[in-house]
Design goal:
- The chain has one domain.
- Helices cover 28% and strands 27% of the residues.
- It has 1 helix and 8 strands; from the N terminus they run H-E-E-E-E-E-E-E-E.
- The strands form 3 sheets. It has a 3-stranded antiparallel β-sheet, with no helix packed on it.
- The longest helix has 54 residues.
- It is rod-shaped.
């Protein structure tokens, strides 16, 4: 009945007056049982652990990518620096040597001053004239660095090794440089 602010329930087809609705037991209070709470907590725990593992794996992947990009930048920088100097190498019999090599001679660009340039691998990096051009880190190393001088060009080869998650990966860098000073010699003016 509408309009009077109350409603009569419990009556309808198939029900008798005074009978309780089907499936109704003793009166229940609203809330969750202990088992429902434990199941919800277990599901929540699985979700939290999964998200924590996802963050951990993404951090490891980020660090791995960072090391790889550092290795690429290191290799390219060393190769660029060394190949620039290799291109300026001269064949100078007046300074005790002859053909350039890793411990050969390079002409300073723009001047006539000749500087002895020696690249060495002491075991913990690359040195140029006793000063570190690159010092190895715990996960980035340079095991191979070679300059091979030919008649008109020099081949510069470099290997950068990264150690990441228990595996070792080598990246090879190489270039061929035209020796633009190959016919130039230093003459001492007396």
């Amino acid at each position: 009945m509408k309009g009077f602010g109350f409603r009569v329930s419990g009556f309808g087809p198939g029900r008798r007056a005074g009978s309780a609705p089907a499936g109704a037991g003793p009166a229940r209070r609203g809330g969750f049982t202990l088992i429902e709470i434990l199941v919800a907590l277990a599901i929540l725990g699985v979700i939290v652990v999964s998200i924590a593992n996802l963050f951990d794996e993404s951090t490891v992947a980020w660090d791995s990518g960072l090391r790889r990009s550092q290795a690429m930048l290191t290799g390219r920088a060393i190769l660029d620096f060394a190949s620039t100097e290799a291109g300026a190498a001269i064949d100078d019999a007046n300074i005790g040597g002859g053909a350039p090599a890793m411990s050969g001679f390079a002409l300073q660009q723009g001047t006539n001053a000749v500087t002895t340039v020696a690249y060495t691998l002491p075991g913990d990096g690359i040195q140029r004239n006793g000063t570190y051009l690159f010092r190895e880190e715990s996960q980035i190393a340079v095991p191979v660095f070679e300059m091979d001088f030919r008649d008109r060009y020099a081949d510069v080869d470099l290997t950068v090794r990264t150690t990441d998650k228990g595996r070792t990966e080598d990246r090879d860098f190489e270039t061929r440089v035209f020796l633009w000073n190959r016919n130039r010699h230093r003459y001492d003016v007396e």
